[in-house]
Amino acid sequence: MQTYRLGRTGPDVSAVGLGCMGMSGMYGPSDRAESIATIHGALDAGVNLLDTGDFYGMGHNEMLIGEALKGRKREGAVISVKFGGLRDPVGGWNGFDGRPVAVKNFLSYTLQRLGVDYIDIYRPARLDPNVPIEDTVGAIADMVKAGYVRHIGLSEVGADTIRRAAAVAPIVDLQIEYSLISRGIEEKILPTTRELGISITAYGVLSRGLISGHWQKGRSATAGDFRAYSPRFQEGNIEQNLVLVEKLREIAEAKSVSVAQIAIAWVAAKGKDIVPIIGARRRDRLTEALGSRAVNLSPEDFEAIERAVPKDAAAGGRYPEHMLQHMDSEK
Ligand SMILES: NC(=O)c1ccc[n+]([C@@H]2O[C@H](COP(=O)([O-])OP(=O)(O)OC[C@H]3O[C@@H](n4cnc5c(N)ncnc54)[C@H](OP(=O)(O)O)[C@@H]3O)[C@@H](O)[C@H]2O)c1
Fold first, then answer.
1. CB-based contact 12:176 (threshold 8 Å)
2. Atom 8 of ligand 1 has which residue's CA nearest to it?
3. Has the keyword Oxidoreductase been applied to this entry (predicted)?
4. Residue 201 CA, ligand 1 centroid: distance in Å
5. 20, 96, 192, 272: most buried, per Cβ within 10 A?
6. Measured from the CB, is residue 207 less than 6 Å from ligand 1?
7. CA atoms of 189 and 291, how far apart (whole Å)
């Protein structure tokens, strides 16, 4: 697997990363043994970047990764952890905590749950509106000096916050949604990360399965599945969005590849500074996702794909409105 250096200071990560969130309930029930087999399959295929958040299943996701990594070389994985999301016992969301004292607290629990003595990339999941980003990043930088964290990342923040953070310490990547149907970063955020030498680790590349070619209208999302309340999956929007998928399918079939592979290849081809993190939670999905590495897109393919799915063609926002309002990246 080809590797790329994130940011100017590393680490070196595989050209495709594995996002483990869906293995801990964010997309409905998942199978523990299959999840672990998927993580093993990814590592064995050369995928070293594993992404998690301490709030995914309230620690469940970190413990799962910890179990999967048992008996393996620690250096074989680049573990990216988001922190700061505050939860309640029924899975509700209560905002974000980016205070320096909270950073150290979150990190201590994360190290225990993962069973490791350092985190490769540590990042606040969202900007805490009550805490200057300088303070949050400064606290992570203290943990870098102490040896508990190797690199600092950001997540879903806008250009001004990226600049402020990068003035405090080296930032290796910004994790943010980027796909054929979520292209908001192209205007201000991507030029800023490029100017500052910060990579993008792109999530939602399949728009949570919507543009994977496997989602069908009428497939019900169970309680707790993000897609049950994601605007793009709701009646009135899903029909229009699936028309876009069918247009992509025509292009995919002409190239004898799958829709998901086209969607991933499109993001990956946007630059060496963009690494897609794919949310596979089964080995068959992982295999399909990794197959995207063999898809070569010609300038004509790019043109056809972007004609099939023009910028802003999606019906519905990428998050429900009340969530978008709190996202620094949307300001
Ligand atoms: N920084 C942030 O704010 C943030 C937010 C969200 C996610 N993330 C991270 O990014 C990772 C990926 O994001 P995402 O979950 O939105 O990912 P995604 O890759 O857009 O969607 C993943 C979903 O697509 C479906 N799918 C269909 N075919 C697939 C294939 N070949 N390979 C993979 N998935 C396929 C699967 O649903 P079924 O299994 O139901 O078919 C899967 O759960 C997450 O795991 C998490 O680590 C970060």
1. no
2. 203
3. yes
4. 13
5. 20
6. yes
7. 29
What are 237's two structure tokens? 């929007």
Decide whether any atom of ligand 1 lies within 6 Å of the 16 Cβ.
no
> What are the tens digits of pLDDT across the range 9-25?
999 999 999 999 999 98
Residue 220 DSSP code: P
Ligand 1 neighbour 289 (Cβ under 6 A) = yes
pTM of the full structure? 0.97
The C-alpha torsion from 203 through 208 and 213 to 218, rounded to 10°, is -170
Q: Does domain 3-330 have CATH number 3.20.20.100?
A: yes
How many Å lie between the centroid of ligand 1 and the Cα of residue 168? 31
Q: Looking at ligand 1, which atom is closest to the CA of residue 21?
A: 45
Q: Is 19 in the pocket of ligand 1 (CB under 6 A)?
A: yes
Q: CA 152 to CA 28: how far, in whole Å?
A: 30
Q: Mean of the per-residue pLDDT values for the chain?
A: 96
Q: Is 319 a catalytic residue?
A: no
Residue 3 has pLDDT above 90, yes or no: yes
Q: Does residue 163 line the site of ligand 1, with CB under 6 A?
A: no
pLDDT tens for 245-261 read: 999 999 999 999 999 99
* Residue 104 amino acid letter: K
What is the pLDDT confidence band of residue 135, given thresholds at 50, 70 and 90? very high
Residue 84 contacts residue 128 (beta carbons within 8 Å) = yes
Q: Which of 213, 202, 201 is nearest to 178 (CA)?
A: 202
- Give the closest residue (by CA) to ligand 1 atom 15: 279
Specify the residue with its C-alpha closest to ligand 1, atom 12.
279
Write out pLDDT tens, residues 208-241: 999 999 998 888 777 778 898 899 999 999 999 9
List, for residues 68-82, the tens digit of each pLDDT value: 999 999 999 999 999
Given 4, 27, 56, 118, the catalytic residue: 56
